[in-house]
Amino acid sequence: MYNDEFDKINGEYRYNRTSNLPRDEYRPQYTPVPESPKKKGGTAVKVIALVLVCAIVGGLCGFGGAAIARNSHRGETALHQSDRAPVEVEIKKVDGQTAMTPAEVYASTVNSTVSINTATTRNVFGQVTESASSGSGFIITDDGYIVTNQHVVSGASEVTVTLYNGEEYPATIIGGDADYDVAVIKIESSDLPTVTLGNSEDVNVGDWVMAIGNPLGELTFSMSQGSVSSSGRAINVDGTPFNMLQVDCAINPGNSGGALMNLYGEVVGIVSAKYSSYSNTSVEGLGFAIPISDVQAIITDIIENGAVTDKAYLAITAGTMTEEMAAQYNIDLTKGVFVYSVEKGGAGDRAGLRLGDIITEMDGKTINTMNDLSMAKKGHKAGETVSLTYYREGEYHTTDLTFDEQPQTTGEEEVQPQPQMPEQYEDYYNQMPDGFEDFFRYFFGHGW
Predict the structure, then answer these.
(1) Is 427 a known active-site residue?
(2) How many CA atoms lie within 13 Å of 51's alpha carbon, on the beta-carbon side?
(3) Both 288 and 325 in a single domain?
């Protein structure tokens, strides 16, 4: 009768505060719960459960015992350690006869390489700037002459050289040449370790080479290695044609001007350029170096004279012939180098060249573009004579041309006034197709 006056919470009864009876008189009414009938097979279930429990306990005991045993023997675990003696890298003399491992090449030549950092404080308008760049180089004489790229030091107001031993020196720019991208700088020191120059004409595709330099301006005296992918590769860098060694060494900004070594420790090239993209396509493994044999005489000339003094000069103004020009001028030739002007009394004038001639061959080499003419000219010096073939009024003519010496520039960066066009060129200029006026003006005043 009192069941409604008690609430059962969590299996216990509590006093119902709504009742009027004294609390101590309440007793919950006990209602017997009928006993559930026993299931059949209860003994078998118990046996199975017991077996499972024993298995689990046994497994846990085995695992724990193994863990205890493992921990107790932790200090006794034997690792297989090589007992090979370390290889000692031997510093060898670079004599052109002794082949080395890459590690030996590095050890034997790294002291002859340098890190170059430059600063520019004024631009061409005289405005103060704060720009810096870095590159690499190598010591060519024991009294401090160092070879690098022209583009590394061009326009720099301060040049600092760091040797492998950490010593720093201010450097003076002796001279350089943009056509070959070679420059010579000098530090005041003595008894410096020097490189040994090799013969780049002996380099074969597949030869192993190493580049030592200053990538990113921070990773100083790093060496990368690879093979020669092509020798005598003609490429164009910022409008200037070059004959290059193509390599697959890792080359990055800051490597420019560094030495490219063969396995004999000889310098066979000057690291100069890399392609990271071409025609909107990412590329890998394309590095280039200037063959040392192509510029060895130029380096000596710069050291002795401060500039290249015997550069071949045609004393003409010219540009690449195109199909559009051929159609405009009714010329049945679409390749070659069109002569825009000839300096009176110069090499081209003496050879009989005149306005409108198209140069097609030099010493048996086909000339299709200005790049071809530049490359052919690079192989000669002032005073040398070549056979020149040109096209004029429907006929080919051959003449001998003796190169002049290219006039020396001051090396100072200054804004050149726009040249005035002589009257004899006005008709050609007025007949130029749309878009060619700037092309004509560009080549006018640029001597070859």
Answers:
(1) no
(2) 6
(3) no
